[in-house]
TrEMBL record:
Coiled coil: none
Annotated Pfam families: FAD_binding_3
Protein name per the record: FAD-binding monooxygenase
FAD-binding domain boundaries: 112-315
Keywords assigned by UniProt, alphabetized: Monooxygenase, NAD, Oxidoreductase
Gene3D superfamilies: 3.30.9.20, FAD/NAD(P)-binding domain (3.50.50.60)
SUPFAM superfamilies: FAD/NAD(P)-binding domain
InterPro entries the record matches: FAD-bd, FAD/NAD-bd_sf, PheA/TfdB_FAD_monoxygenase
Entry's Gene Ontology molecular function annotations: FAD binding; monooxygenase activity
Amino acid sequence: MKISCVGGGPAGLYFAILMKRIDPSHDITVHERDPAGSTYGWGVTFWDELLHTLYGADPPSGQAIAAGSVRWDSWVAHVQGRATVVIEQGEVGFGIGRRELLAILAERARSLGVTIAYESEIDGEEDLAGADLVVACDGVNSALRERHAEHFGTEVALGRNMYVWLGTTKIFEAFTFAFTPTPHGWIWCYGYGFGKDHSTCVIECSPDTWSGLGLHEATEADALALLEKLFAEPLDGHPLVGRPRWQTFRTLTNRTWHRGNLVLLGDAAHTTHYSVGAGTALALGDAAFLADALHGESGLEAALTRYERQRMATIRPLQKTARLSAQWYENLPRYIGLPPMEMFSLLFQRHSRLLPHVPPRLYYRLGRVADRLEPLYRATEWLGSKVTRRSDEAAAG
Ligand SMILES: Cc1cc2nc3c(=O)[nH]c(=O)nc-3n(C[C@H](O)[C@H](O)[C@H](O)COP(=O)(O)OP(=O)(O)OC[C@H]3O[C@@H](n4cnc5c(N)ncnc54)[C@H](O)[C@@H]3O)c2cc1C
């Protein structure tokens, strides 16, 4: 097969690797608009489960990713002036720099015979004449997808909060949450290590806090200086690095993920809020499923349909969970005044569908009972949606 991948992020590079492993006769080119070695963002988190998948799918890159990652098993949450809670020996997490991850995948892809064309921006399929398969792995703003937005049924839900993805020279040994009060509301950061000399620091606040602090009109240098001051304690006085480009998160869904020989992969197909730290793992998982479907089905349409069906079934529920996680932070005033242990406990239960509907203190007190109520709540929701659908049908009929 002659395959053109548009986008040299984790999805495109990993797909190219897996296809070449299965069948070295594939002719694969990855087109990346940026120069080699340049990327956006800082480190990304992932969990044990991903490492097992990577070891199985392509041991050399799995081992290199494990070797290039840092590991943590403790979590720290600070609420400035009130409490610091440390949870030791919790779930094991890993962090790796995006630059490092992409370098590992690019080197492995090249060693298998994949061509990587840097500084090669592709705007449409017409630039890729002769390809049997065009893979749009060009990220959340995919140009290939946007050209056919109606066919794909693209929908974007904007998050309410403002966020910025920065780095810092502070090395966080534990995954760290830090909440800081300001006269304009709370601002908080998520910090995690990813290498020997840098950590990631994602900073988030409500739009009112953002404009109240003057961040909407601050120069980049002033914004960094203000954020360093606000987070001086968790940063231990270390500087923040990077360009403060504020955004709201875009949760992207598509009704279908393929059109003829064009298929969407990774963030081009779906996004999940960064507070669940899953987008990269999902992009790599998409690559594995697509490679598998292409070698397990006899025709292209059947393979793309199977990939789309299987991955949508996995990803749709995760997108809902991620939305709940994002909403927990959007509703921070509901939780921030609780006694610290209660607040942190609910922070770790922010994926609950029940929590937004129950007074937080009651939810906390119900504790384990609430966990048991969750399936009952899901059943009620499901029943509710059936009833609504039937009454809609009755009204339409
Ligand atoms: C603040 C933040 C924190 C995050 N933290 C985590 C985390 O901790 N863990 C995690 O798993 N995920 C995290 N993510 C999500 C993760 O970054 C993405 O899900 C992941 O990068 C998706 O990979 P991808 O290959 O699909 O897209 P991308 O990584 O976006 O790669 C797309 C590539 O396509 C290239 N491109 C775009 N257009 C063109 C074109 N026309 N022609 C050629 N090339 C093009 C781009 O330059 C880019 O290199 C986070 C996201 C954000 C915003």
